[in-house]
Amino acid sequence: MKIRMLKTRQGSPDGVVVRTYIRGETVDVPDELASVFIKHRWARKVTESSVKDRGKAPENKNTSKRVKT
Fold first, then answer.
1. Lower CB density within 10 Å: C or N end of the chain?
2. Is the entire prediction scored with pTM above 0.90?
3. Is beta strand 19-21 parallel, antiparallel or unpaired with respect to 26-28?
């Protein structure tokens, strides 16, 4: 499950290795670990609708003014 960390916390995705999850990062973790983080309000579930498609970047247009000589 993809989650976005609201607070920096440590957790073990596999029961062996402990990892530090940093506030603000989006990570994919096992559902069991994600549910613990979400339950304690240390993280929020990331849904597809929360990622906005901003489309193509606007083109840069030459807006410089011509200098009269």
1. C
2. no
3. unpaired
